[in-house]
């Protein structure tokens, strides 16, 4: 058999990852409100899967048909459809089970038929004053082009107005979750204060349909059914010379609104003639996914499901702590100048990063700031500090990635705000997405310029830094900062020759460097020296890298992998990957860092990176990986990885069957790695402070 036989389709592997998310919703050891939120995460993930992965498969089928070649994508599409149907069935069963468990804890998520008369009257008044102003039905008739206004992945109510002897009339009502909360707490009658009742915005609208249509249409009955459609999220930039990239991006967002659907989900008891009507107006093809579902769609809103009950119904807080390295110095620059600093979010506070750029914005010694922006928070303190720095006369350059999927609109707006403030905004090169996480601050010290750099695995985003695990390296190592400067120059001038000796930079040297590092481990194994590879990535699907790992395994290199999402590699196959073990961890925080460690004959090399092991990240994006040189920080990262490899609570085995079986505990202590890491790092920081205090106490005063 060829090695191609040992590559799992990335789309099926992605669905297997989302099944692990659903496992968290099913896990009764997870607090009930968190289980509801995992249903929301699963739904949000599935939306993105259809917008990106499914849409890509559909496109491949169409291209193969046009070329007249046999398409593997058709078979893959069938497998995807079958897997999604199974996952949706599991989802529906889980949702019903969770509703019952919430009811046992006196939390009731009700529909419009389960209200008392008092509650129904209250909601009708609430609807008229709070919701009705946001409701405008769109009537479905021959003069209306539904695809021109229907929003991608939004939830709608499809309404049927019936009068005896006449053809039914149809309308669509958008659930206005952009303007209003999806969940409304309903007042309880006296004597039932312990009970908490919540109703979805959708069901309030169902209750009050007459308030919308009465007086405008003549009908005997009015019924509403949930529906949602998902569009292809990919698009091509126009190449008109007279248009700026910013203008092109704005147009492409408009184009997305009219892109054809790839999925149509409808309430399973919707009348067949209504389903047919919607399939027709939405121009659903034979390759699109048409799925019957429950009464509610856009479960992604359930990520924000409120806890109206006791505190124990959601995860106890793990408040982020400060880094001793930063605490022990007067300002951020003094701290970074002392030695490299490594933070691990969300355990460490993101405030150290925001404080660094805040100090830089007014520090008279700072001359310039350069930073990449891929995704940022809605009210970003990072961006505000860039504006403050420009106001203070600093030279500020912000590289904005306009093609950050699903964040394009926000990034376009930030670009305009920054430009208006006098910040130099760089958009990079079309077709070469900038995914690196870099910041470079130049400061004049003792008559010379000194650079301070940041290289990270995650975005400069205050919100995600509280829920994603990510490494951030702060360094004043001039070998590294000089190459960070080269990356920024490369972004602005991508066709000029540039060489990197220390950083691993896509698309310049990543593939060559990664191949070389793996091949070096093979040479060590062949020479009976210490050889091993430890990887932590979000996705591992690049065929060249997977095949080289197979070769390393066959040469005796021990390989351990932690992969969150897609994994095309099949571990544990005799004669192919018998020396490879892989696990996946899904827990309260989203595992997001990329770490590559190579034993190198006993002199371990270690890198953190923004790049996954995907072809696009290696060859078609600007990504940056940085060596970890401080032995203290290497040991810290390895300790974190060892804790994760010892996880016996949230770790699943990656195998060919994509079974998602939990790692067996056996006689070993039950270890939940994310909480163990929190305790470990908190202890490390306390010990650092104690050591500093002891050193200060033991150091004799300087004689005058």
UniProtKB/TrEMBL annotation:
* Alphabetized UniProt keyword annotations: ATP-binding, Kinase, Magnesium, Metal-binding, Nucleotide-binding, Phosphoprotein, Transferase
What would you give as a GO molecular function for this chain, any one? ATP binding
Q: What is this protein called?
A: Polyphosphate kinase
Q: Which organism is it from?
A: Salinivibrio kushneri
Ranges for domain Polyphosphate kinase N-terminal come to 8-109
Quote the PANTHER family the UniProt record gives.
POLYPHOSPHATE KINASE
InterPro entries under this entry?
Answer: PP_kinase, PP_kinase_C_1, PP_kinase_middle, PP_kinase_middle_dom_sf, PPK_C_dom2, PPK_N_dom, PPK_N_dom_sf
Enzyme's top EC category: transferase
